[in-house]
Structure of Helix-turn-helix domain-containing protein:
Amino acid sequence: MRGVISGMVERVRAICDEEFLAKELGHIKTTFFSNGYPAALISSATTHATARPEEHVPSPTAPLLILPYYNGLGEKIKRMGRTVGFQVYFKSAASVRSIVRNDKVRMAPNEKPGVIYEILCTCSASYIGETGNSLSHRYEQHLNCLNRYKNALDDQRGLGIKRRGRPRKLQPNEAMDEAIKASAIVEHASRCDGQLYPNVIANEPDFRLRKIKEVKRHTKALLLPNDKTRMANLKLSVIYICSMSRLGRDPVF
């Protein structure tokens, strides 16, 4: 409680002119007394706060001390600094809360945008790709293509469920071809019942570097059959990107 009173008195001394100081100190005493603080404590704390030894105004070159704050000891060091002419500032010590808690939102690897990723099948076939979106977003696109392929295949076999609304714009064969073109995973999954497991190989926000890293990973991977043509195209893309970079121009795709 003494600290609360002393703090208010110090604040008044810092912001009030001398002619208003006595009036403000009287107001502080009255306020604390009306809130149940003992009169003796109010008087003692006020006297102690107003009877500090004269402080030396530190010069711009006065020594500066920054210390961890310890209750009781910190106040003594600060008083000593005022009497001999050096500045004392305190920094809070690290708490368990500040060490353990981290308010920064940590995104899961598959939720970060800009990734080189791999989709591995249990048959050991592997697809490597890149996307400016997150892996979860890109993998969902692959699955949507696969679902469109399966629905078109059911329609072709006469097993499709009749739905209300507008008829499909594409014939089953056309829809299947479009799905395969949109995702190399579709053609493989249409011939293989293996489970697919997506994972992030690396995060890379820069488009050029993503393309280069994708090619590097392709050369080490066991590719899907129709992915070898894509790799050749990727190498050409990397050559094009590097050439445009040397010219200081952005590639156009």
About this structure: The CA atoms of residues 85 and 111 lie 56 Å apart. Residues 135-156 form the longest helix (22 residues).
